[in-house]
Amino acid sequence: QITTLINHKDKPKRSDKTLQAIQRVGQAVNLAVGRFVTVGEAIANENHELKEEMSVACIEARRAGETIAQLTDVASLDHPESDSHITIFTDKTGVVKAARLLLSSVTKVLVLADRIVIKQIITSRNKVLATMEQLEKVSSFQEFVQIFSQFGNEMVEFAHLTGDRQNDLKDEKKKARMAASRAVLEKCTMMLLTASKTCLRHPDCESARINKDGVFHRMRLALEQVIEIVTDSRPNGENEMAPISIYSGIREFKNKVEGLRENLYFLSKENLSTMLEVILEHTEDFTDSAYTSHEHREHILELSKQAKMELEQLVSVWMQAQNQKTKDLMEDLEVAILKTCQCMNELKREVHGAATSLAADLLKYHTDHMVLKALKITGVEGNLEAVAEYTCKLSEQKEQLVEMCRLLRHVSGTEPLEITCIHAEDTFQVTGPQIISAAETLALHPSSKIAKENLEVFCEAWESQLSDMSLLLREINDVFEGRRGEKRVYLSLPRPGKHNANLKALKPVKLDTEEQAKIAKLGLELHLLTSDVDSETEKWEDQENEIVQHGQGMSSMAYSMYLFTRGEGLLKTTQDLFHQAEIFATEGTKLASALHALSDQVHDDDKPLLLLEAEKLISMCKQLQITAKASAQGKSATFTKVDACILKTRNAMTLLCQLLPLCCKLLRKNKTGNGCLKPAPPWKEDRIRTGTNARTPERRVDTFGIKSLENHVTNMTFLESK
């Protein structure tokens, strides 16, 4: 709104509509500042150490907002401008000054409020740590129940604070680290409960004590990492060492090589050689690994050798071009650059294939959890010898999975996915020994229900991490194939004369700020529906299913349309939007055909319902196509058409949200697929909602397992009776 005021054009003639619009914007800014400052003042009253600074910033902001309102009060401008009445038209510099003051003071308020939030999180962490120390020292179950109830409430508060903070983080790398730390805390809370109960029941058992100590240690590390992220600091002033992967190394190396086209002198040949050496050192993680296939190892070694040769040739031509910049030499340099980059791309493809094929094989091999099942059975039998045998097998499995995570990190493609791989590696490293100590405790006390429950909890954490690895592998493959960014983009933008005979006659139009505001609510509903559809499609194990494919395509297009309502994304004009709506309708019609095909496979009782839903979808898609193709002349008519297209898209997405679970249910019922549904891990951040009617997309990341944690606290009396 401030930008609108600053950028308004000075026209000799101003209509009443223009004057009223300017006044409305000025009043809206002042009202928004008033609401903002009210919150700032309330925060100041609750935090005396920052009260003075916050109050000064709030006063400045309020004054600037009032100044803007006065300068835009142009309703009484029915007299000549020579009048003493000062407005935006007679003193535009005054508005600029007020806007600068406003932005400066608002920034101060935000920074001060941020310091208070950080302090709240640190205080909450300190409470949790203090209660954890008490929990470690308890000697009676009754005392443990009381303290754990307090601990649970404190963890719920910490969860709320860190969940809000995670939503506010703009750095994707920090957001991924925060998600990993909060996932550890969520899982460890239940582990701490059962491990402590086991230790209390069997106080002289060494393996039970080791098991409990491991949980407390891991929780403390996770709490410390949250504070590091929140305060943007490292203990003892250490600098954070960013993990170096082959992908990031290749990306940086290629950027430097391609930069030679613009500047032959911006780096030295030693720099390039060093960068390649680092990349090739990392490939040794693959060639030295016992789990890399012979074929992949040979190809990686060959490509490493070729990369060195290509760089030598590039450096030779590059040095000559620095001395004598002839056309022939520049052409030779271009060829050398292309050959070097092509070689690095092939190396990248080879290590990706080696890592992902290993991961797919291991995850498939360990999907039956046979070792965990055997540990549970032999533990209940009290068979120490058999437990020792299976703990060795679990240790071998752990080493395989840790190696898999290390190799996947090299090919993950993005920093958040790299961090997720590191988190997975740590989880397997820590959880493996904890399962072993829990199994040994059960074998020593085979009739202990609490020891059995404790082993179950640690085994579930292992199984959950394996399940998460399948999702992670899919994301890594998506990045490699270019299917993943913030959101998949599914576009088929119009080209003049190709898709629409009348396109040349139509002037591309963008929505202005006022129109975007009107359509924002509808766009937001569309965004929430795409999230719901994505959540449903991710539950299908068979991601190649035709219904899933069409559903994902429709969701991606709907997301692009949502971005359009915000003035973002690749749909730049209304004509782009209308064409996208047509493609969306076509995709919906294809989905309806897939539903008809499915109806032939289901029982007669289920067929009418499925056919009815398919017909509804066909009808909606036809209506959307008619609306998208209809001509619209003038700004008002065009906006009405935009509104209608998004409304009809939203209706189709609502139906899609109902169709996907129905289809999966019918497939399961008729046993036509191998387990169509896969349970989503409970802690996954992007699965959790604050409520079924949530209206704000940012609230999708809720506090970790708060519902389950609150249930633990509420049911402590029941746990004691057990």
From TrEMBL:
Pfam families listed in its UniProt record: Vinculin
Localisation per UniProt entry: Cytoplasm
BP GO annotations: cell adhesion; Rho protein signal transduction
GO cellular component assignments: cytoplasm
GO MF, one annotated term: actin filament binding
Keywords, sorted A to Z: Cytoplasm
Coarse class of the protein's main subcellular location: cytoplasm
Keyword hit for Glycoprotein: no
Keyword Cytoplasm attached: yes
Entry's family note: Belongs to the vinculin/alpha-catenin family.
The name this protein goes by in its record: Alpha-catulin
Provenance organism: Orthonyx spaldingii
Lineage: Eukaryota, Metazoa, Chordata, Craniata, Vertebrata
